[in-house]
Amino acid sequence: MGVEFKHKSILIAGIFTVAALIVIQLFNIQILDDQYKINADNNAFRYDVRYPARGLILDRNGKILVGNETAYDIMITPYEVKQFDTIDLCNIFGLDINDVKTTLKNYKKNKRKIGYQTLPFVKQANSKQYAVFLEKAYKFPGFNAISRTIRTYPYNAGGNLLGYINEVDTSFIRKNPEYKRGDYVGRTGMEQAFEKILRGEKGYNIFLRDVHNKVKSSFSDGKYDKEAIPGKSIITSIDAELQSYGEMLMANKIGSVVAIEPSTGEVLALVSSPGVSVDKLATISKYYSELVNDPYKPMFNRAVMSPYPPGSVFKIVNGLIALQEGVIDLDDEYLCRMGYHVGRGVACHAHPSPTNLEESIMMSCNAYFCWAFREILDNKKYPNIAQSFNRWREMVESFGFGHKLGSDIPAEQGGTLPSTKTYDRIHGENRWKSLSIISLAIGQGEIGTTPLHLANLAAIIANRGYYYTPHIIKGSPDTTISADYTQKHFTMVDREHFDVAVRGMYRAVNSPPGSGATAWRVAVEGLDICGKTGTAQNPHGKDNSVFICFAPMDNPKIAIAAYIENAGFGATWAAPIASLMIEKYLKREVERKDLEKHISESNTIILNAK
Asked: Is 2 exposed, middle or buried (CB count within 10 Å of its CB: 0-12, 13-18, 19+)?
């Protein structure tokens, strides 16, 4: 009996203890802790979102590439809307009255489902429209305005590189639940790549509703309001003036120009043409269909996405590999009688003959590099063509070809580099020889490189054998760059062999007319430009014009690749564009105004379509 009584007493005490704890917790929740009330009682509150200013995108000198200006979203809370002057509202914002009536009808139909939600009604109203609306706000119950920022572009340059922002849609929200309706997100380019840095963090103001569901006052005098946190700005490696200048030169041309600082790997300019005009970026939705359907694909970033045949600029790589493999030396000369006349042969232009490696780079001799390439693949130290080819391929890869360079440039592609399997498939296993793939000797055939790869090649030669991974972000308090971008990547060719390539490129630009030099027309006194022309065969039309260069010869400050589709000889279009950009960057002013005018006003799309 005593034991039973004792058990009952313990049970009763336990029940009272639990009950007391529940009462205390309810008191905390309902009386002391407003935060619980806020979360559980949403219909009593209205949250006005405070959108953060998106971070700025600056050039290497602190100039604004992408800025902000204030715009206003006119919001509607359908539950609070009463009869209002529809015509006046339409006049303020330039709305179609029938569209407005349809929208309001849908809101009324779904009133229960929408509840007390506040939704965007007019997006990105300007300051003038907002001022008029503010004066007449009393006439539009259920409407209010919130400020936000829209993007501005002080320089008409870099549309493809910078990218655009757009409002999130249902499918995006489903995959990224941290975003809500009305939010904007970077969709392409740097806006997308650095979204987490640029976007900032939303805030809000909480307002209390009365028993009639009208907004009465700020809740707890703003105690629980949250300030919006602006996005962080990023400093890019881009030179705004050079980027703008490059885009001016590339007007009415198809192709791209990439400029790199060899000593750091920082990208100074990255032009893709035709590109997206920055005038269209801020309101991209208006032009999206037009851009997508444009036959010249302005949204396609050719600088990092097009796997072009490199053409004659690739001869330098083969020459360097031949030196490293010991199958040629600097004094070896080969005859060129307007080409390489073995098998199907490879034609060449008229120039002095015979030539050694330095002269062959200066004159861009096809025959010399065909001989050198065959010496690489027919090297007797390898038991078969497959092994010598694999060694060649490995050394080509060390120059960054055949794979992504690992840059922070959005949408970078790796190009193409054939393997033994490629030729086993084309010719049959063990049925191909060095002569079967002779087109690789002059940068044709199954190899594809992006203009970024070619600019990187120019930087490698400028550095005499190594490169830094190209990148577009500079270190700053808000954006530290990856340690990967400060590591040197050495080629498999010894430094000592690069001197002949540098001398050959210097002579290609700075030798007098009649010497056989291919780029003498683009020499600039005092700049010591070193360059190599290329004319890449194009299965889809006229030849592509290619040029890589760097300057000065010693302690180079800039390396460039220019690639113009269907434009013919490298010396005709690509070389002048690249040399003008070097002059612009190193001198800040261009003295060759006649050449500048000719290039900027020429339309190679029309010229080469004839």
From this structure: exposed
> How far is residue 377's CA from residue 283's CA, in Å, rounded to a whole number?
55
- Beta strand ranges found along 491-575 (DSSP E): 530-536, 544-551, 558-564
Note the pLDDT tens digit of each residue in 524-578.
Answer: 999 999 999 998 887 767 889 999 999 999 999 999 999 999 888 888 999 999 9
Please report where in the chains the tokens 């600088």 appear, as a residue: 303
Domain 156-201+219-250+272-300, CATH: 3.90.1310
- pLDDT, residue 541, reads 73
Q: What is the pLDDT of residues 486-508, one digit of tens each?
A: 999 999 999 999 999 999 999 99
CA distance 577 to 561: 10
Q: In this structure, what token pair is assigned to residue 578?
A: 């690249």
Q: What is the pLDDT of residue 17?
A: 64
Which residue matches tokens 């694909």? 297
Residue with tokens 């008191």: 27
pLDDT score, position 36: 46
Look up tokens 């006005």; give the residue.
48
The SS3 assignment for 259 reads strand
Instruction: Please give the torsion angle defined by the CA atoms of residues 31, 34, 37 and 42, in that order, rounded to the nearest 10 degrees.
Output: 150
Between CA 435 and CA 213 the distance in angstroms is 85
Beta bridge partners of 488: 468
Q: Quote the tokens at residue 150.
A: 């829209």
Domains 69-150 and 156-201+219-250+272-300 alike in fold = yes
pLDDT in tens, 377-432: 999 999 999 999 999 999 999 999 999 999 999 899 999 999 999 999 999 988 99
Choose the CATH number for 301-573 among 3.40.710.10, 3.40.190.10, 2.30.30.40, 3.40.50.720: 3.40.710.10
Is the pLDDT confidence value at 40 over 80? no
Question: Which one, of 494, 320, 308, lies nearest residue 392 by Cα?
Answer: 320
At 344, the pLDDT band (50, 70, 90 cuts) reads: confident
Domain 69-150 of CATH type 3.30.450.20: no
221 versus 549: the higher-pLDDT residue is 549
Neighbours of 550 (CB within 10 A): 29
347 contacts: CB under 8 Å, gap ≥ 6 = 338, 339, 366
**Where do we find the tokens 């300057």?**
551
Q: Pairing mode, if any, of strands 530-536 and 544-551? A: antiparallel
Q: Does 607 score more than 90 pLDDT?
A: no
Give the three-state DSSP class for 255: strand
Spell out the domain ranges in the chain.
69-150, 156-201+219-250+272-300, 301-573
Residue 467 pLDDT more than 60? yes
Q: What is the 3-state secondary structure (H, E, C) of 60-92?
A: CCCCEEEEEEEEEEEEECHHHCCCCCHHHHHHH
